[in-house]
Amino acid sequence: MITIPIRALVLLVLLLCGVTAPAAASEGEMRWALHVTLAARWLDPAETEAFNTPYMVMFMLHDAVVKASPGGGGQSAPSLAESWTAAKDFTSFTFNLRKNAKFHNGEPVTAEDVKFSFERYKGASAKLLKDKVKEVQTPSPAQVRFVLKEPWPDFMTFYGTTASGAGWVVPKKYVQQVGDDGFKKAPIGAGPYKVVSFKPGVEIVFEAFDGYWRKAPSVKRLVMRSITEEATRAAALKTGEVDIAYLLTGTTAEEIKRTPGMKLVAPLLSGAFWIELPDQWDPKSPWHDKRVRQAASHAIDRQAINQAETLGFSRLTGNFVPKIFQYALPVEPPAYDPARAKKLLADAGYPNGFDGGDFHPFPPYFSMGEAIVGQLGAVGIKSRVRTMERAAYFTAWQEKRLKGMILVISAAFGNAATRLEPYVTKNGIYAYSSRPEIDDLFIRQSKELDPKKREQLVHQIQKIVTDEVMNIPIYDLAFIWGVGPRVEESGAGLIPGYAYSAPAEDLKLKK
């Protein structure tokens, strides 16, 4: 019998899976296995999506006027701005920039860079922000003022958290010199790490920027590598090819948990999984009937999926707005009740079920999609899982080309209003349509300065979304990683509700 060493067998598996195994991490270098393909647009804050994923790169490369930080509860904290003030009526916000903040090319971060970055921003909630901002003033190189058209208490929530990327700053002169495409190829930021090399979809290598204002990073070199196959990520972690492997589920997570020297971390994110039902806006579709949407919700065994996917660490919910958010309406998850689901379908005129269209799972949560499709099929809602690469998924969704059912997750921080805006309002980047009463309430709450009155308005929106079953919440995700034996500080959970390793300058390897 031929004996093959375990390490050689793992490398053979990596090659057969189409992944070239990287060399073992060297001293002073920390490596990640990512569950997604690296997108070039994540290098440019101007194109930030309403999701946490781009921030795994942005927290390394860039910096923001204000951003979430340890101890801040996920809310805005000083960063490139050392302080800020708001007018009493919330019609202006003034930021005082640090004197020692600079970009990787040595140029200082100025008010003109802040203004330029905001004006070129076109990502999540861009229209809302620019509709609200009258002008951006630069009284001095170290001060920038946002003047609003009307009072808006939520400016800091949209501008200064992961609800949008509008507050992240790029160097004006450099971007104008190389252009948007040139910037993605050779980005310069103001963050704790600078890019050494980038292979789109494959790998990005960072090197510590000792001139970072907060402190010089401890780890000298960071390497992020896309390994989309979960078993291959776990194998790379076991052999020491990587130090951290994102997104481990079910039996794979259990295996890592049992492996000596390895540990699991499972930060509970500020984000729920839910199912979008875009066909509900089509009067000819079965999904237009609220009873059908209710039936689908009762057909899903949330706890069984939680156990299978995240070892029970996630938190079931009946609201896609996380309960930790300001103005969140607590909603218990609907009961798993297949009998009631079948009766609701029969009452709606579908005693034998119906074809619910394609099911598009958020990449790479394909096994979760298969489980949900199986549970829906058990009550008569027939569907087919259609997997997509993440960039294609987002493009098709924003262009309103996905039909049937869309499994979604967003862990972007903010409050209830920032979570509602992209998905249920008429200007929302992912909204297929909206209800006039919701649009009216959203406008009213955005102008309301009394916190109690505002909470009532935002609660009304969430109650409509829940009562009309406009979407189907599943659970707030516990995002499981595997961490190898060389890591002293992985960054897991340092920023509450955030999915990935941050702040980058706080990461540490064991000596």
Describe this entry's structure for a reader.
The protein is an alpha+beta fold and 511 residues long. The chain has three domains: 27-47 and 191-267 and 479-509, Periplasmic binding protein-like II (D-Maltodextrin-Binding Protein, domain 2, 3-Layer(aba) Sandwich); 63-174, Dipeptide-binding Protein, Domain 1 (Dipeptide-binding Protein, domain 1, Alpha-Beta Complex), CATH 3.90.76; 271-477, Dipeptide-binding Protein, Domain 3 (Dipeptide-binding Protein, domain 3). It is 32% helix and 21% strand. It has 16 helices and 23 strands. A hairpin with a 2-residue loop joins strand 7 and strand 8 (143-148). Helix 9 (290-299) runs antiparallel to helix 11. It is globular. Residues 1-22 have low confidence and may be disordered.
Summing up helix and strand content along with how strands pair, one would put the structural category as alpha+beta
CATH class of the largest domain: Alpha Beta
Number of strands: 23
CATH topology of the largest domain: Dipeptide-binding Protein, domain 3
Give the CATH H-level superfamily of the largest domain. Dipeptide-binding Protein, Domain 3
Count of spatially separate domains:
3
Looking at how many chains there are and whether they match, the oligomeric state comes to single chain
- Give the strand content: 15-25%
Report mean pLDDT, rounded to a whole number. 93
Described by strand count, sense and barrel closure, the largest sheet is: 7 strands, mixed
| Helix count, DSSP H or I runs of 4 or more residues | 16
Instruction: Please give the CATH architecture of the largest domain.
Output: Roll
Q: Strand sequence of the main sheet, in spatial order?
A: 10-11-12-1-13-21-14
Query: Based on CA inertia axes, which overall geometry fits?
Result: globular
Q: What is the radius of gyration computed over CA atoms, rounded to a whole number of angstroms?
A: 23 Å
Helix content: 25-40%
Question: Which residues sit in consecutive blocks of at least 5 with pLDDT less than 50?
Answer: 1-22
State the end-to-end distance. 41 Å
